[in-house]
UniProtKB/TrEMBL annotation:
This is leucine--tRNA ligase. Residues 816-944 form the Methionyl/Valyl/Leucyl/Isoleucyl-tRNA synthetase anticodon-binding domain. The lineage of its organism: Eukaryota, Fungi, Dikarya, Ascomycota, Saccharomycotina. It comes from Dekkera bruxellensis (Brettanomyces custersii). Pfam families: Anticodon_1, tRNA-synt_1, tRNA-synt_1g. Keywords: Aminoacyl-tRNA synthetase, ATP-binding, Coiled coil, Ligase, Nucleotide-binding, Protein biosynthesis.
Amino acid sequence: MAEAKEAPEENTSRRDTLVEIEKKYQAIWAKEKPFEVDAPSEQEEPYGTSVEKLHEDYPKWYASMAYPYMNGVLHAGHAFTYSKADFATGFERLCGKRALFPLGFHCTGMPILASADKLKREMEMFGENFERAPSKEEEEKALKEEDERKKKEEQMKKETGQHEDVTKFTAKKSKVKEKAGRAKFQFEIMEQLGVPKEEIKQFADPKHWLEYFPPLVKKHVTMLGGRVDWRRSMVTTDVNPYYNRFVQWQMNRLKELGKIKFGKRYTIYSVKDGQPCMDHDRQSGEGVLPQEYTGIKIEVTGFTARALGYLREHGFDPEGKKVYLVAATLRPETMYGQTCCFVSRKIDYGLFDMGHGEYFICTRRSRSLLAGGDYKEALLVNGDLLVGSKIHAPLTPLKTLRVLPMETILESKGTGVVTCVPSDSPDDFVTTRDLLNKPEYHGIDRDWVVEDPISIVRTDKYGDMCAKTLVEKLKIHSPKDTQQLAEAKTLAYKEGYYNGVLLKGKYQGMKVEDAKPKVKKDLVDAGLAFVYNEPEKAVMSRSGDSCIVSLEDQWYLDYGEKNWKQQAVACLQKMNTYAPDTKNAFEGVFDWLKNWALSRTYGLGTRIPWDQKYLVESLSDSTVYQAYYTICHLLHRDIYGRERGLLDISADQMTDDVWDYVFCRRDEVVSDIPRAKLDRMRREFEYFYPLDESISGKDLIPNHLTFYIYTNVALFRRQFWPTGIRCNGHLMLNNAKMSKSTGNFRTLAQLVAKFGADASRVALADAGDSVEDANFDESNANAAILRLYNLKEWCETMKSSETSLRTGDYNFFDTAFDNEMNQLIDETFAHYKATHYKLALKSGFFDYHYARDYYREVSALYGGMHRDLVAKYIETLALMLSPVTPHFADYLYREIAGHTGSIHTARWPTHAAPVSKSISEELEYVRRLQRSIREAEIQSLKKKKKGKQVDVDVNRPVDVTLFIARTFPDWQDKYVEIVRQIFDKCHIVDMKQVRGHVDGRDMKKVMPFVSVLKKQLDVSPPEEVFNRELSFDEIRAVKLTLPVLKRAPAQVSVASIHAVFFNNGDSVGTDVSSGAQVDLPRAKSIQNATPGNPGVQIRNVA
């Protein structure tokens, strides 16, 4: 990936001019309030009118983005997602719809409280204003000194023969590395967010975050020109009593519907926080789920003398006790092929008393995973002491195996014990081979290693020694070839599981995927194994805790339940997801998503109504907030719900039954709220719902967006189910990943400060529209400043000089420009409709700009631009740009085009006459001919291969002749007909069939020609491809545009230009102006001329 390069600083006068316009129109909009949108009143449409008629008479659009979390300000990535909703809202307003875009502030969950608690601890450590905090230099110096001291101690121990006390648990990571890997102090993060140091102490109160960041985010969004109806905003949590009641209603109804249940469930769990760690609670590992493993009990039948001495010295005598090394595996059916057991010499293992005379050896972190409990630790024993011990492993035919060392075992994964199956595990095969080749190096006896793997699974692809085959195929030489081993492991698992047949044991001959659960059950039933869970990958909570999987009593949402899932799938099938990848991603989530922990004990939020000791977790109180947006301005005037709204209703009056009535779940309700007020709220909901477009990053598909579908289909009638979800990728900055640590990072406020609002919005629109990662290129933002400023200057010049512009009848280029504007208006409309904003920007801004420049250039030869077309260009440009650059567009619309009203109430431009394909093709023909003349000029000025002579002397005037073929060569007509016949039969162009019809001498010219036809058939209807007649009069087009064509050459002076038409095969042509007969040169360019593609000849005037 290219290195990120910040755009160079430039003179800011142009930007500052645009920013003045932006501030001016933001002030105007603050007074006019164009973004405050209401449902039709009772006077406009009586209450009780059907939803269908309501929408037919008053079209609407409702968009939202995933509301941002209030532990900081918005960054460029937020701005990118936000822009999609804003652009859509602006466009739909132009389509005559009441377009609504509200934005709230999410505060539920752990992050804010965890950060506040960190600040409290830091204030205790460093003082109220962190005055005792070490400087970075002091901290780094102290850490280096500590590292040096430890290294000296370790060296002295080696020299004196001392050994490390393995009973003492110590971290293996150096302090310097630890410092490099940990996050900054929280007060430093607050400084990064722009909070003055003296104010940071206030954030030790979590409620202060809710007071500080929402107004700041609102300010920054407004600076960007946000089309947000801020009346409909709110903060979540019980700080807002109305939203609190809304979430309680939601929970109560889901519980009544049987969607919320209680019981023990495996969940990702933070021991430090004492509660489940859900996606929004995680510093890393979002989307990671519990994974089921089989814990294999490998009995230690004889410890080494060193291990035995150590154990007894520390008070543990294994005599008469069952001691097991516990290995985690995803493939219990392969236990028939065990040849040893691996441990790491770098790991200190715990010896845990499991009760009933059984002891497990595994890592400390895995002890609470193993059998659903936390067991007493007898002592620690280093892996080095275990190497060489004798073991007995279940199912393997080999009776006495050994414990052997493996360098690649991770303490953070599994149990730290790995059972060895070298026939089917590439890692095990390579490690076994390495031990056999270098026993002395590894400090083992070679006799301890079983040399020949046991074949246990056969596949057609890899035989019965899958690991050996893959290791040789991928040329894996060492356990350190981690990338190739990872690939081999994936291939081995997939092929073995889906296509393998078991060769050993009770289920010999059975497919592996069928045998696996049976073998696992047999092992568990026999007491030789047990089932346990751990995270699929590492998960770190926001409090800095490495999470485990725990079996916890909890309230959970029963996602994945058959009937509920069927409803969710039905909703998805009818939904517009704007990209096939998005729909596929949802279908994948529906396949695996099951129970989701609802309850938590730490954080901010709403209490579960029937179990007040628990809070509703943050992804579960944010599933249908879009329904709350529709009425919240009627409930409260401020985001905290402190001041009652337009209807003067208290939070206590919003009972569950009232919410049901408002959201059309019941048609009658007993309430002290007057019926007219209830109907007013109900009208707002039933008018704006369903949500037309929910916009979010693709990373929220596995949780927030899927929960949104599930909850909507559970709570609302089918007519209110969501109809669209649009997902985008992550945003890169200058072609590199955004990162605070590297400095390649921008907040929304920084973007606006550096480039202004509209130029930032142009760069956001140009960043990309797919679910792949997009790129905000600062050079594009700078280019937008220049383009907008120059456009402003030109428009002002046109306004001041409009009386000097040409009027009267249109000439060809007037008609062509008018037609091209209409064509680009239609293209831009289609792009906006499809939410392809990059393409809309291209056609409605860049291509429109090019069309004007071309028209301005050619019109200079015909008396200048036409006044009506200049006016049309400015007004339609303003309208097409308004979704992306609303400030600049409103300025053009009012101050240049002369409208008194806002562009936010205007309509998309229309044109009476349809776009003429013939005129479009004629204009493109002229432009293409201009390019052909320039290319001919370049060729004529090139030195010949032999000698230094050129065709044309650049210092002498030239004559340009255009040779227009009125017919196609006979050979082309012949092969077009052959291709047509082949295509009519099978609807494809079979090149082999075509070759069978081609004469050998024609092959070189025919096959390239047919290839072009084939490509045209891939993108155009066959009737257009096979009908090669031009839609315009080519000779007329040339005659009309000769003055423009004469100016095409860039380096030579054209004395005259002529056009000659002829039929292919003729030796004489006719001059289109004089009618004189002209002998045709035998030049290749003329021989290759066809209708629509004239030959060009440039010669110095004699």
